[in-house]
Amino acid sequence: MPDRNRQILLVETPKGKLGPEHFRLAEAPMPTPKPGEVLARVRYISLDAANRAWMQGATYRSAVEAGSVMAGGALAEIVASDSPALVPGDLVFADTGWQDYAALPAKRAVKLPQLEPLTHLLSVYGVAGLTAYVGLLRVGRPQPGETVAVSAAAGSVGSLVGQIAKIKGCRVVGIAGGAEKCAWLTGTLGFDAAVDYKTGTLAKRLKEAAPDGIDVYFDNVGGDVLEACLFQMNLRGRIACCGAVSQYDGAPQPHGPRGVPGLLVVKRLTMQGFIVMDYESERAAATAELKSWVDAGKLKVQEDIIDGLENTPAALIGLLAGENRGKRMVRVG
Fold it and tell me: Per residue in 49-59, is it b (16+ CB within 10 Å) or e — as a string?
């Protein structure tokens, strides 16, 4: 085991767009676990748009302060333990931060099954898959024959939401950036239609893609896309609010959708935000069903793996710019 621990520090809280200058690769002594803690070796770091939101202030977790190790969830392997709940060799998901090794309370590490490929534990069987599953099925509550629309549809969560909606017998419209991503959605993933938000008038394109309106909208971006979808919602439609990536990374004038109160009343819409941790009790059942779909070839898993801890900042910056297709993660070692 090395005697030094590489870490990525957030050296400055960004005021505008996130850039490489906001991070620094540093070294620190190897952490020593305290009573009740474990020492975990980070294997794969999960990259999510929420990483950027944590720099702006407290959300469902405390803000990431300048000068600290950048926060982030990871798939890690236990190398030392002072807890009977975990032993060396166990795989866990934990908020380790961006570093090679982390010491943390055992109760904050979720033990994971041993399966291959390991990366699926961060994608389809991890936060992305569970978020898609509970957000669509528990919050959106789609019924066979309904139209489901999802934004950031080529991303880690959106690509799974659309496929699960198809499995449940829905018509699916994906909203993504660029012709290549849209073609991938309709070709490889089987979406019924895809709308490129970068071309033409979004409201017009949405009406063409969903001529009978939208029954369930899974929102990952907020802003103008949410506004356009709100006006296309059918009576008693459901909106599952998962994220607002359009507001995270230095948007010049972040704003919410216009006309929300009136539309909610007139169309009797249900609009609900959710956090996947609220559904922790469903993890085992959700994972089992997701795995059955993957094994049957009904659910395709797309992963975007970047090598090297030192490349984590650039990988997050690229994710915020929409470079990735499917779940982006960093292989640490």
Answer: bbbbbbbeeee
